[in-house]
Amino acid sequence: MGSWLFSDRKSDFQFFRCHGRGWATHSAAIDNDRQETRVVSSKRMGWIGLGRMGEAMVKRLTQAGHTVEVWNRTAAKAAPLAEYGAVVVNSKQDLSTCDTVFTMVSTTNDLKEVLFGEGGLVAGARRPRVVVDSSSISQEGSAEIRAKLEALGIAYLCAPVSGNAKVAKAGKLLVVASGPRSIYDEAEPYLAAMSRKAMWVGEGELARVWKIAHNTMFGVIIQNLCEITVLAEKAGIPRHVFLESINDSVLGSMYTRYKTPVLTKLNFEQVTFTPKLLLKDMDLGLGAAKAHGVAMPAAAATRESIARMVGRGYDDIDFAVLLKETAADAGLQIQPLDVDVSDGLSN
Are 216 and 313 in contact (CB under 8 A)? Predict the structure, then answer.
């Protein structure tokens, strides 16, 4: 016999029964006016892509009580998630009978491969009903994927996020989604479980435009933050003091706060996002700007700065190494500071 776990929230309640491979979820929503109760059966959820972000997001889902069936190209990255209640499967096709499958991969081509390539999620006779993708890919590539999925009768929701793996672990991601509103409403409880807020911005690929704009700003901010931090330190203001003052000013943000520890301690080996990935996003931003006839001189200058880092061989290292490069250009040899600073993510 299975065991039961109840969760009460306002007029809704959920109960979970453990059986077979995981928890089956049922929810009863009570209409207070009509005093009616409806029961909705659980739906299987799959996940493809367990990099730094994917792993953190799956953990948030399991911590919220959801059972997630997971697959990753490198199986060793999937195995530890079993300790959190995830079900590790052997192939992408094993997820084809899930109702909803989330994907979080690096590029448009990666997404096409896991969906349509040999042994891909939708390459066989069995297919999920919904695909929700949180990767950072181009608007054009996303539209192509949408057309292929919808031709197969599969609904598609774009759901990119704001934040890195540390932000995801803290439950402070923002999820911005686009696609059919009904599919967003259906997926929203999952999106909410792994974020502080989820938003729907419209139909089609509008969430891709949002993500491209977001990550372009992301690059411009780190470029400027590194420049002004070097300026302040070279003029005589201790680096950690300057960063703290910016964080507490009208210009401070979650972003400047969570980058403060690495900019202070210079521990760039603790990777959240690489220069190569940032360069990809800057190129997407400039490509979108060209398509829509928008001049972005600040983004263009930042793109060249990031490209120089990539050209110098910076690979598996955090993109905040830009601070070191900027300081060197200014003739300043910066040193790690043994100072405890907050990342702003602790509750």
Answer: no
